[in-house]
Amino acid sequence: MKMSVRRFISKQIKQTFPNNALHTYCKIQTLSNIRLLSSTTASNHKKRNVFRVLDGTISKTSAINNNNANFEKLSKLHEQFSKVASAGGGKKAIERHTIKQKKMLVTERLKHLLDDDADFLELSMFAGLQMEYGDIPRAGIITGIGKVHGKWCLVVANDATVKGGTVYPITLQKQLRAQEIAEQNHLPTVYVIESGGAFLPLQSQIFNDGGRTFYNEAVMSSQGIPQIAIVCGNCTAGGAYVPTMADEAVMIHKKGYIFLGGPPLVQAATGEIVTAEDLGGATLHCSVSGCTDYFAEDEAEALELGRDIIATLNITMNDNTTTISEEPLYDPGELPGLVNTDNQMDIYKVISRITDGSRFHEFKTKFGDTLVTGFAHVHGQLVGVVASNGELTEPAADKGAHFVQMCGERSIPLVFLQNTDGEDSTVTNGLKNGDKLRAQAKLMSVVSTSPVPKITFIVGNGVGPVSYIMGGKAVSPHFLFCWPNAMIGLTEPQVVAQEICASKESLSTEDQAKIYEKCNKESTAFYGASRMWNDGIVLPQDTRQVLRQCLSITRAYRPIQPVQAPVIRM
């Protein structure tokens, strides 16, 4: 009897797919087709760039040429400061350190410690220059962030060619700021130590906050932030606590010494004559006291041991090296030409020379337009941009608070481009003043409590209370940099000078000129950088590169923090 075609096919299917497996097979095939379709669709979406391209075109006018000429003077001043900072303690001190004592310079030590010193983000390079007590190049220490075995680490390294490595008040400020950055970003911290202790003539300015460095070291260690010390020279007085409190410490034979008081002090107090090696050398502390853990024959071995310690930390870094990046369509080298002598600039043209592909997704374009807010990518990293574009009005502050809250909700880092002026005090309408104050206070609260990294560039003026709101030092940004043209202060320097001159009688024209000159000098970015008001001066054309490093650093060990409140729409 002939079998029908339908029955034949049915029989074959049952033999091929026993136990009702046909349904499962069909389901798998359907899901595969859906996934294939989704993959194709996703691939097509990936090919489309997100966000619109900004119009960053500029015409080569005489104004642009004048701006470039003015900025050239600032660039030369930046170069002069860099030379003084890089010279350390001078030729004689360097020769004594390298030839007589046969030690590496601090910059050489960093080259041995880091994977690539070219990718080292140095902080506060100009700190200590033109201080009331003289030049202290780099404040006597180099601080910065670099990679060791691929892991971002913060390094604090004494420069013993500068005043013998003694600690000045500005040295202490610089070290405390470095520790603050390490704690904010959860960065393993490496102390490369060679210090003669506090500079005693200025001890009254050092003593109270001096112990804070040890407190910070203990607190960071308790938070799981590794603290590593490499003793390359003298480590005396209070500085002796740094390696002793570290998680792990390396010490160099016949080069590194740890003691509260050195041989001269011991002899003066007890009459006993003792060598530095017997009192606090590597043999004693590695084999008897146990204050240090690793014995090194020379500096190269000590720094290699430091690298090995980092390799044992067993920490995972959030890596974004596979993220696709896109260069701006407009040349960052054109940024100096956008800044006029009054620090006024088209902020959209600035943004177009910093973001990937010059793309920017603006939020609330037509509302509160004196504050520009929106999303962009920088080297593939999504960021929220908050940029000054005039007076911070009530609508602008409301918009800013809304936007900053959204970025906190979505765990998006904030980039502030600050250019603030003194507030307009001519408004006589009490209600209008009150509404503006309320909105600004709200934005201040939101920025202060935002759980995401804040990276600030003062691209123009950082003047008045609004400077605090726009990611200023008062709200503890993760990083704060200035362009060389930045002007910083409670109000404009000419206003300060006018008030001072008005309060004094019978001032000569010459005396008035000196007051104006002093006020102008004390409001410059360079004056602020020397006194640790910022984390360094960045040339405009380097902004994107520095921002790339900062974003990578803030992302490296940052957990996603849940937000406990909804976004409030103004």
Question: How would you describe this structure to a colleague?
Answer:
- The chain has 570 residues and is an alpha/beta fold.
- The chain has two domains: 223 residues, Alpha-Beta Complex (2-enoyl-CoA Hydratase, Chain A, domain 1), CATH 3.90.226.10; 188 residues, 2-enoyl-CoA Hydratase, Chain A, domain 1.
- Helix content is 43%, strand content 16%.
- The strands form two sheets. Strands 1, 10, 11, 12, 13, 14, 15 and 16 form an eight-stranded mixed β-sheet that branches.
- Helix 15 packs parallel to helix 16 and helix 18 runs antiparallel to helix 19.
- The longest helix is centred in the N-terminal third of the chain and has 27 residues.
- The termini are far apart.
- Its EC number is 6.4.1.4.
- Pfam families: Carboxyl_trans.
Give the biggest sheet: 8 strands, mixed
Number of helices: 21
Distance between the termini: 83 Å
Care to count the β-strands? 16
Shape: globular
**Strand-pairing-aware structural class:** alpha/beta
Strand content: 15-25%
Gyration radius, in Å: 30 Å
Topology-level CATH name of the largest domain: 2-enoyl-CoA Hydratase, Chain A, domain 1
Low-confidence stretches: 24-32, 34-45
How many domains? Answer: 2
- Average pLDDT over all residues: 90
Helix content: 40-55%
CATH class membership of the largest domain: Alpha Beta
CATH superfamily of the largest domain: 2-enoyl-CoA Hydratase, Chain A, domain 1
GO molecular function: methylcrotonoyl-CoA carboxylase activity
Protein name: methylcrotonoyl-CoA carboxylase
EC number: 6.4.1.4
Keywords: Ligase
